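Same chain as my last thread, 67 residues:
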Amino acid sequence: MLREGGKRYELLDVRFAGETNYQTYRVHREATLRVRDSNGEEQDLRVCGSLLEQKGAWKVFSYVVGD
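reply #2:
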């Protein structure tokens, strides 16, 4: 099980496997966060599944459990 609580990361990039557009919002699927840890090492993290985007605001829609 991946445990990231309490660790400090710098967010470098966010990638998505796909997206679906609806009338008033967009769902970005399978988010992968590219981060740099406190030792300067970069890695990809999967901590959330999908994010919603609406009028410039973002919201976590689902989480990754046991990825």
